[in-house]
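Here is one chain, start to finish.
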Amino acid sequence: MKLRYFIPALFALFALVLTSCNDDDAPTMFDEIQVSSSNVFLPEDGGSTSIAVKATHDWAIDASEMPEWLTASPMTGPAGQTAVTFTADASNGVRTAVIHIECDGKRQTINIQQGQASVTEATCAEVIEGPESKTYRVTGTVSSIVNTTYGNWYLTDETGTIYIYGTLDAKGNEKNFLSLGIEVGDIVTVEGPKTLYGTTVELVNVTVVSLQKSLIKVEGYDPANATFDKEGGNVAVNLTCKTNNGVSVAIPDEAKDWLSIVSIAGGAEPVVTFHATPNEGGIRSAAVTFTTTDDKGKEYTAIATLTQTGGIVDATVAEFLAAEVGDAQYRLTGVITELYSSDSQGKSFYIRDYSGTTLVYRAEGFLGNAKVGDVVTVVGQRGAYRDNPQMVSGTVENVIPVTPVTIDEFLAKEDNANVYYMVTGTLDEIVNPTYGNLWLKSGDSRLYVYGCYPGWGATGDARKNYLETAGIKVGDQLTVIGVKGTHNGQPQVANGIYFSHTSAR
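Its structure:
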């Protein structure tokens, strides 16, 4: 970009930072914390810039990230809207910083820049490997558009893919992406500062330097949702191609075992038909690339994502955690070990089975009276937040209530293989260390526990030796979950599973 184009865009954004303090102008990636701009520009000869912070809870700027040359006032604030002013003395060059505002477990990124940064031309791979806060100019193909208000999309070249988080319009304004006319397949040159969101490399609030419309475009699908049935079948992709050099099609290697090309027909409006084999697993998808060239050999591409429905994969937590992030549906059953404290809607919780623990984030159908200790079955997708695995887009299928009782209360219950209790006592005696048969004691009362298995769903060898593995010893406080049973006239917790313990020493 020539300097005369860059300067107006910079000052337009600078003015936006100063004036955009109403709710309608506040871009955000979180409900909990919103800012009027995630980029703060300070003049090289010193000065201040303010942004508006809107939060649903108390918030704080991470003081450990503040460089010596920068101050912010205030550093903390209550729920509601607050003006935050950033100030810096004069500098002898460009200075940058990336700080975060934290609110209710969420971290909003703020990019600070003092002075005019030089722009480095780079490939996607060089951006990925390069330092944060540096401003890059990169050219690539629009491979996917995520948000058409702020302009969030993926840019791909022959070296890799980066995420564009926010695209400024021709006047340097936010929330006007559609005015640029950018579509999947277009070749775009952008420039903006790099930041990291977890492990995702982003260029934030980029300026569009140039736009070259693609000569090939996906116009539609048959069926319209571009989805194969679980049993398999065909999907046709309708294209327009503004060259006379034909269309080539590339199926990703990982999808070639289930997806194939049936036919390619047509000239200026080609139709490519794909076939999918029956799907015995969870939902799956593939991004298929269509390529054409102009008379000078320059390549143009378009991308279509084809999806095939599938069944629900019954999995252990460990298997779920080992799966790739994606659209596949998994069914997990486990014990609620913790309610997610920052979820005001009460839909998020941690569940544990014998193989591991995961967060279920805002599952639908969560019963309001479900509590820690209850056994739940949930269905959802493997997701992640800042590299932390979690179930997303989930639904609670079933809840088995578990009632906390004392040993005396448990002993008074009737035998019932369908009613679960949580019992706590002092480990008084270990009868069988392999399967965890033991006695619990509370006061003068003792209760026999037939099995202390590592968690819900354990079978076979997975049930063995958990007392030793967890370091549980006589004298420890132990909490188990199980049903009331009787063997040879002796009441017992039948097939007990471990919930928690506190070491006596």
